[in-house]
Design goal:
The protein has helices at 17-24, 61-67; strands at 53-54, 144-146, 153-155, 160-166, 183-193, 196-208, 215-216, 221-225, 236-241, 250-251, 263-271, 282-287, 293-297, 315-321, 323-331, 333-341, 346-352, 357-359. The chain has 384 residues and is mainly β. Bound molecules: zinc ion.
C-alpha cells in the first residue's frame, strides 16, 4: 500500500465537488478494466496523422466468447484489503476533450472518447492506474478506474459492435454472478490500430442496457455504473484491448483516450544503467507554475501488463495541463529533471540511470510492429 505521507498534500486543496468526491471514494477495483471519456463525437481531424485503420470484420459475438483463452480463475485472489483512495491527479475541473480520433503524431492514438460524460468525473483515479499492483504480487490492474457514482450512465468510447453484455466476461461463463468483472460490456470497434482489432471493456456495472450484437455509436449508453463483481464501491473499470478481446491483451487506456484540450500526457520509460526497467518506482511530477504535484508509479514486468508498441513505456500520467514540470524520484540517488508537457500529445522521456535523461520521441520507430502481448504464466497467474 502507498503511504499517505508520500502523497502530495497539496491535493487536498482541491475542494470542488468533483475533486473531493474522488478523494473520498471508498471504491476500488479489484479488477482492472478501464474506461474512456466520452465526447465530441464524430470529428475526424485533418491533423490526425495517425488514423484508425479499417479492420477485417471480427468474429461473431459467439465466437468471441469462445476464443478468449483465460485460465480457470480462482476468486480468492480478488479478496483483498483495499488501499486508501488517493486524491485526484489534478483538480476536479477539465477543459473539453479533444475530438476523437485525436493524434498529433503518427504514433499517438487517442482514438476513444471517455466512457463517462464530461459533466462527471471522467478521469482515472490517481492511485489505480494501469499496471498498478495494489493488492498482492501478481495481481495487476489491467485498466483504469473512473470513480463515478452508482447509476451514472456509461457511454461507448467509440463506435462498434457489442460482443459481450452481462455477467461472466472474465470466466467466460454467462450468468456467472461470481465473475470478478461483474456485469460487463465489451465492444469490438469499427476501426482498428495498424490493421489490428480494437476492443474496449466496461465492468462492474449495475445495469446493462446494451445487447449482444448491437451496434453502438460513440457516446451511446451501455448501462449504468455499479459495483458488481470484485469491487468495494461503485466505479467504472475501463480497458482497451488489442488485437484480441483477452485479459492478456490490455494496454494503458490513458494512451487511447482523448486528453482535455490544452492538456497533455506524460509518458516515460525508466531504466537502470543497464537498461533494465524500473518497476513500482514512485515518480513525482510537479507543475512548476501551479506547484501541483502528482505521484505515479512505474509498472511492467510480465503478468498481464503490456506496453505500447511504440513507446514501450512503464509510466503514464495523463490529464496534465501543458507547461513545465519537474520530474523527480529516488533511484540510487535523488534524481530530478525538468520537461515541457505539450498540449494534445504525448511528451515522452527516458531515464537510463546515472542521471541520464532524454526527452523526445523514441528513436528508430518501427512502423510495422506487431504488439508483444503478455503470455499467461503457469504460476503467479495475474488477475484482472
Ligand atoms: Zn479497475
Amino acid at each position: 500500500m502507498m503511504r499517505q505521507d508520500q502523497r502530495d498534500s497539496k491535493e487536498s486543496r482541491h475542494g470542488d465537488k468533483a475533486g473531493s468526491s474522488s478523494d473520498t471514494l471508498p471504491l476500488q477495483c479489484v479488477l482492472t478494466l478501464m474506461l474512456i471519456p466520452l465526447v465530441l463525437a464524430g470529428c475526424s481531424q485533418s491533423i490526425a496523422l495517425s488514423s484508425p485503420t479499417p479492420v477485417i470484420a471480427g468474429p461473431a459475438a459467439t465466437e468471441i466468447e469462445a476464443q478468449v483463452e483465460i485460465p480457470t480463475p480462482t476468486l480468492a485472489p480478488f479478496r483483498f484489503d483495499l488501499p486508501t483512495p488517493a486524491a485526484a491527479p489534478v483538480s476536479g475541473w477539465r477543459p473539453p476533450l479533444y475530438p476523437v480520433p485525436w493524434a498529433m503524431s503518427s504514433y499517438d492514438h487517442f482514438y476513444f472518447a471517455r466512457p463517462i460524460a464530461a459533466d462527471q468525473v471522467n478521469w482515472p483515479l490517481a492511485d489505480y492506474r494501469y499496471g498498478g499492483i495494489f493488492f498482492a504480487p501478481n495481481i495487476v490492474h489491467t485498466g483504469v478506474d473512473i470513480p463515478a457514482p452508482e447509476g451514472t450512465p456509461i457511454q461507448a468510447a467509440g463506435p462498434g459492435t457489442v460482443v459481450w453484455a452481462g455477467w461472466g466476461l472474465f470466466t467466460e461463463a454467462p450468468d456467472n454472478k461470481d465473475d470478478p468483472y461483474g456485469l460487463a460490456v465489451a465492444i469490438r470497434h469499427d476501426f482498428g490500430f495498424k490493421g489490428q482489432q480494437l476492443y474496449t471493456v466496461y465492468a462492474h456495472m449495475s445495469k446493462v442496457s446494451a445487447v449482444l450484437g448491437q451496434h453502438v455509436e460513440t457516446g451511446e449508453p451501455l448501462g449504468l455504473v455499479g459495483s458488481t463483481g470484485e469491487t468495494t464501491g461503485p466505479h467504472l473499470h475501463f480497458e482497451v484491448r488489442f488485437p484480441d478481446n483477452s485479459f492478456y491483451n490490455t494496454y494503458n487506456p490513458e494512451l487511447w483516450t482523448a486528453p482535455p484540450q490544452g492538456w497533455g500526457v506524460l509518458v516515460g520509460r525508466l531504466m537502470d544503467s543497464e537498461g533494465k526497467t524500473l518497476q513500482q518506482l514512485e515518480v513525482f511530477v510537479r507543475n512548476e507554475e501551479t506547484k501541483d504535484q502528482f505521484m505515479v508509479k512505474t509498472y511492467g514486468g510480465g503478468g498481464a501488463v503490456n506496453h505500447d508498441p511504440y513507446y514501450d513505456e512503464n509510466l503514464v500520467l495523463g490529464d496534465l495541463p501543458a507547461g513545465l514540470y519537474k520530474v523527480s524520484f529516488r533511484f540510487e540517488q535523488d534524481v530530478q529533471y525538468w520537461m515541457e508537457v505539450l498540449p494534445g500529445q504525448v511528451t515522452y522521456f527516458t531515464y537510463e540511470g546515472e542521471n541520464r535523461f532524454t526527452v523526445g520521441p523514441p528513436q528508430a520507430p518501427e512502423l510495422d510492429f506487431l504488439p508483444v502481448t503478455a503470455t499467461p504464466s503457469p504460476t503467479g497467474t495475474p488477475r484482472p
